Automatic annotation (TrEMBL):
The keyword Repressor does not apply. CDD domains: LuxR_C_like, REC_NarL-like. Residues 145-210 form the HTH luxR-type domain. This is Response regulator transcription factor. It comes from the Bacteria. Residues 2-122 form the Response regulatory domain. Keywords: DNA-binding, Phosphoprotein, Transcription, Transcription regulation. It comes from Actinomadura decatromicini. One of its GO terms (biological process) is regulation of DNA-templated transcription.
Length: 223
């Protein structure tokens, strides 16, 4: 894949450049701030951008704002966000987006090279990859609300949690060591118990994840 990096830590940035090159990816740009990333993408969009959350000049949310701008202007470019923190509002916006090619990993996950590369491949292939800890913290942020998941069995909650991380039915089956047909039955039970079996105008899978995170439905229709 053709990849662009935005990371203000020179050590981590150069480490990622070397790792990606060794894996056969083309690193088209490696920059230290969000504006430079946007300029690089504008000059020639890559397959995926990997972007830190907090970069110069204020070290607050420059990277996330750049990521959301890339999603708006170049929707075919995959976006993988890396962070030491869970920026809840932006993470929820990414995780509930009714589109593929997006991921959010904590930087600790980069040390697990296989997991990082798997996430990059999933995002580059139009899928999603969300750190389990990101999902957990988002759930904790919504813990005070009424729990719409009380009717789910522990296994169904496991399946829905994996859906929220961006996994397909096939990858959920592999991770839980069950058949894909069993996962499909669990997914249908989730839809029934969350009163989504007859939902129209939105993807039921997206609506289930929105319920899981305690969010509101998106403002536009999708297939």
């Amino acid at each position: 894949m053709r990849v662009m990096l935005a990371e203000d830590s020179t050590l981590l940035r150069e480490g990622l450049v070397r790792l990606l090159a060794e894996e056969g990816h083309e690193v088209a740009a490696a920059v230290g701030d969000g504006d430079a990333l946007l300029a690089a993408v504008d000059a020639g969009p890559p397959d995926v951008v990997v972007v830190d959350v907090r970069m110069p000049p204020t070290h607050t949310d420059e990277g996330l704002r750049a990521a959301l701008e890339i999603r708006r202007r170049w929707p075919d470019v995959g976006v993988l966000v890396l962070s030491q923190y869970v920026e809840k509002r932006y993470a929820a916006e990414l995780i509930t987006a009714d589109s593929g090619g997006v991921g959010y990993l904590l930087k600790d996950r980069v040390a697990q090279v296989d997991e990082f590369l798997d996430a990059l491949d999933r995002v580059g292939g139009g899928g999603a990859a969300f750190d389990p800890e990101v999902v957990r913290r988002l759930l904790a942020a919504h813990g005070a609300r009424d729990d719409p998941l009380a009717r789910l069995t522990p296994r169904e909650r496991d399946v829905l949690g994996a859906m929220a991380q961006g996994h397909t039915n096939a990858s959920i089956a592999a991770s839980l060591h069950v058949s894909q047909s069993a996962v499909e039955k669990h997914v249908n039970q989730i839809f029934d118990k969350l009163d989504l079996s007859h939902a129209t105008g939105y993807s039921r899978r997206v609506l289930a994840v929105l319920r899981y995170l305690g969010s509101e439905p998106p403002a536009r229709e999708s297939d």
